[in-house]
Design brief:
about 725 residues, alpha+beta, Dna Ligase, domain 1, D-amino Acid Aminotransferase, Chain A, domain 1, 4 domains, eleven-stranded mixed sheet, five-stranded antiparallel sheet, flat
């Protein structure tokens, strides 16, 4: 189909349109990791092929060389013939690589409407992947009309989307530490630091470095600098002498009571931007008060401690890291002005941003910088002599271009103990303690000048110099103190089987005294109460802090829309498909079985399996087959190979290894009649027994629980 008139001019056509663009988080029917799905209305371009429009193909290769360079044989494929949807996919993957989104995989799938194909793309970054797909559709739409196109805007937009939503270094260190311990970690909003860790009763919340268990009173106390200082003073933690003033006159009078130089800062709010240091005159005090009062009319006046500026990070009663903070500075060369030196330093920092493990922020020229220089008798157009260091601010701040040097290994034990006490006095589990000391390696005259709730982690995990510290690991270890790597999870049984044992399992597990969460096509149950009707997935119960064990029924349509909703289960209950009639649920069963953790169990219902031989699961995963008898070909082959099974023999449900019954689990006549009446009921009961056995429920408890369990949801 060639959408051009006989004169070669573009014909009027309906533009390509995005019908739906959504992301599926985690394992799904398309890919083991998150994907983005795009339903694309081809409109008039349905049936278009690149081999029938060589001028468009030539235009693409000239205008978008990055697409051809991303795939070695792209030009050949283009000549052989690509559809519009395949072209959109190729452009999207090329844009993603150029924008550092790095999608690893993509496919075009047919739908019931040939005019609206489905594009599925691996989605390592939601915002970036959405941006490249939207840009790819716009670029291909322009190509079809022979309009000028460029990848630059699409790449820039995707990079910007990634940068806006990427976790900062501190948050990333927590994410990495959680992943190292296999702790489920979910960002609630990409635009901020709020995350949920763990499942069910093991859920922990964190927002950047502010933990969900941190007392609100402690956070509010740290925010009130005067109150925090008073409490520290009462606890005999060394802090500067000071007082709170409410007017410029009172600030000036403080010089008569305190020893200059003084520091003036607002009692609350972002004090570093509005703090004044080295105040020695009444005029300076009045001016400093006016600036601080823009944030809070209550202004804290303190004697300025002498020494170097340090930040110690206390996590869970231990010093996890320490950095010396150095204010922004430039070094003269004898010919350049201070302004020129700042610009050159910023250019150097921008050039190294992508290569450095600890990129430095640009030095900001603002009123505070110029005032600081003026106070030293220099200006932006001053020319410092060669090798002369010119400090640009009094206060060290990474945000304004300062640097941080790791000093964790040299902190004096008494200084560390003082900081731990300081955090404990006001009840902060994660606390940034600001210390002024002539030398942090000696106890000497170190004083605590401030406590910070939710402190920045960047200066510790990405210092300008020195060893990066695993601060994220320290926070995770505090949140899950004493726990084993998998203790952030709750047992999870995933079901994709016509046996439908969820209701019986829920009742049996509840009879063991555990709080069970169950979700499926009929609703959500938390404990004994149904809290929702209608279809729901795994996240509905895994996100509930009252749940101790989860049972989740999965359906093909729900998983196609939302994914599995979890990464790994402990037990999966699936049906063995007949190779001659696999059915539409076969991909779901395969996915559910593939997502069983190492050490977990696949419970395989063999009823109706025909002559298909059971396939072994992944390494480290146990296979437990279920069938009323051992006569079917699949069961015989499984037992011949020494496999384990749950069977009925001599009126008992037994566990067999090979052809030997090694353990009687429960007598059929000990079960409620509803559990044994008919083939469907037996199938349900057998799979439930298998799942309970796989979850290490002992025989006595299993018998008691099944005898007392309700047989329906």
């Amino acid at each position: 189909m060639n959408m051009r008139t006989q004169t070669g001019a573009p014909a009027l056509r309906t533009p390509l349109a995005i019908v739906e663009l959504r992301t599926i988080e985690g394992p799904n029917l398309f890919h083991p990791r998150s994907v983005a799905t795009l339903r694309l209305d081809l409109a008039d371009a349905h049936g278009w092929r690149s081999d029938e429009a060589p001028q468009v193909a030539e235009h693409l290769l000239l205008a978008l060389p990055g697409v051809a360079s991303a795939e070695r044989d792209f030009a050949e494929r283009l000549a052989r013939g690509l559809t519009v949807s395949e072209l959109v996919l190729a452009v999207a993957l090329a844009l993603g690589r150029s924008a550092h989104v790095e999608p690893e995989w993509g496919a075009v799938l047919e739908t019931n409407d040939p005019q609206v194909p489905l594009l599925v793309v691996h989605c390592p970054d939601e915002a970036g992947t959405r941006a490249v797909l939207e840009a790819a559709v716009a670029l291909v739409d322009a190509l079809l009309d022979m309009r000028p196109v460029s990848m630059h805007e699409g790449v820039a937009g995707a990079r910007s989307a990634v940068a806006r939503n990427a976790p900062g270094p501190g948050l990333q260190s927590i994410i990495d530490a959680a992943a190292e311990r296999a702790i489920p970690c979910r960002r609630i909003e990409a635009s901020n630091g709020l995350m949920r860790l763990g499942w069910g009763r093991h859920i922990r919340w964190i927002d950047a470095a502010h933990c969900g268990g941190t007392a609100l009173i402690a956070t509010q106390t740290a925010a009130d600098k005067a109150l925090a200082a008073r409490l520290l003073r009462e606890a005999r933690v060394r802090v500067p002498r000071g007082r709170v003033v409410h007017s410029a006159d009172a600030a000036a009078q403080a010089l008569d009571e305190l020893t200059a130089p003084l520091v003036l800062k607002p009692v609350s709010g972002p004090h570093r931007r509005h703090a004044a240091l080295r105040v020695t005159t009444q005029a300076e005090a009045a001016a400093a008060y006016a600036r601080a009062a823009l944030i809070d009319r209550r202004v804290l006046v303190e004697e300025q401690a002498r020494g170097r500026d340090y930040r110690l990070l206390v996590v869970g009663g231990k010093v996890a890291a320490a950095s010396e903070r150095i204010a922004a500075q430039v070094i003269g060369n004898g010919s350049s002005t201070i302004a020129q030196l700042i610009e050159r330093e910023n250019e150097k920092r921008r050039a190294n941003h992508g290569e450095s493990a600890s990129p430095l922020r640009a030095i900001q020229i603002d009123e505070m910088l110029t005032a600081w220089l003026a106070g030293r008798g220099v200006w932006l157009d001053s020319v410092p002599a060669a090798a002369v260091r010119v400090p640009l601010r009094e206060a060290a701040s990474l945000a304004s271009g300062g640097t941080a040097i790791d000093v964790t290994s040299v902190v004096h034990p008494d200084v560390a103990a003082m900081c731990v006490r300081a955090a404990g006095v006001i009840g902060l589990d994660v606390c940034g303690v600001d210390v002024i000391s002539p030398d942090i390696a000696r106890d000497g005259d170190a004083v605590v000048v401030e406590l910070n709730a939710a402190p920045s982690l960047e200066l510790h995990c990405r210092p300008s110099a020195g060893e990066p510290r695993p601060v994220g690991k320290a926070i995770i270890e505090m949140l899950y103190r004493g726990a084993q790597p998998r203790d952030a999870r709750i047992p999870l049984v995933a079901i994709a089987s016509r046996a439908e044992p969820a209701g019986l399992l829920r009742g049996a597990l509840a009879a063991t005294g555990r709080a069970v969460g169950m979700a499926g096509s009929r609703g959500v149950w938390i404990g004994a109460r149904q809290v929702m009707q209608g279809s729901a997935g795994a996240r509905a119960v895994l996100a509930d802090p009252g749940v101790e064990v989860a049972v989740v029924e999965l359906t093909q349509p729900a998983v196609a829309r939302e994914g599995l909703g979890y990464d790994w289960s402990d037990v999966a209950i699936v049906d063995m498909p007949d190779k001659h009639a696999a059915g539409e649920d076969a991909p779901l069963a395969a996915l559910v079985a593939a997502r069983v953790r190492r050490g977990g169990t696949v419970v395989l219902n063999l009823e109706g399996a025909g002559a298909v031989r059971p396939q072994p699961p992944a390494a480290g995963v146990r296979l437990l087959c279920c069938s009323p008898g051992a006569d079917s070909v699949p069961m015989r082959e499984h037992l011949d190979a020494g496999g384990q099974a749950i069977l009925i023999r001599d009126g008992w449900i037994v566990r067999a290894a090979g052809h030997e019954a090694v353990e009687r689990l429960i007598a059929l006549d000990a079960l409620p009649a509803a559990c044994t009446h008919g083939d469907a009921a037996l199938r349900t009961t057998l799979t439930a027994v298998a799942a309970l056995h796989a979850m290490s429920v002992d025989v006595k408890t299993l018998r008691s629980a099944l005898s007392a369990a309700p047989t329906t949801a």
